[in-house]
Amino acid sequence: MALPSIQSKNQEFQLLQSKWAAEINPLLAKPLSSSNLLKGIQLVTGVNVVNHLLGRQMQGWVISDIDANATIYRSAAMNNLNVTLTSSANCTVNLIVF
């Protein structure tokens, strides 16, 4: 995703747009800028398949909240639809997927 450019005959405005794009586009290109927060995901002990809702290949995930003492790891390859997580205990998590 890139910052859109508005066509204008005003050269000063065009220069400002170029400067803004040079500053903002690298930030917009980072995976976390198009992430989803999945709240209240209930995991059971063992393997859990969670739809990440990204509509594209997932690049990573972060637990932003957890309500139990559990070890959680990805147990299958990342794909366009879901993330497979294995949990050592029943718990509820919030996941940031990107």
Protein model, in words:
The protein is of the alpha+beta class and 98 residues long. It has 2 domains: 1-34, no CATH class; 35-97, no CATH class. The chain has 1 helix and 6 strands, in the order αββββββ. The strands form 2 sheets. It has a 3-stranded antiparallel beta sheet, with no helix packed on it. The protein has a 3-stranded antiparallel beta sheet with strand order 2-5-4, with no helix packed on it. The model has no long low-confidence stretch (mean pLDDT 92).
Describe the structure in brief.
The protein has 98 residues and is α+β, with helices and mostly antiparallel strands.
Cα(first) to Cα(last) distance is 14 Å
Quickly count the helices.
1
* Model regions low in confidence, pLDDT < 50 over at least 5 residues: none
Number of domains: 2
Q: How many strand elements?
A: 6
Order of helices and strands: HEEEEEE
Which percent bin holds the helix content?
Answer: 10-25%
- Tell me the strand percentage band: 35-45%
Features:
37% strand; three-stranded antiparallel β-sheet; alpha+beta; 1 helix; 18% helix; 98 residues; 2 domains
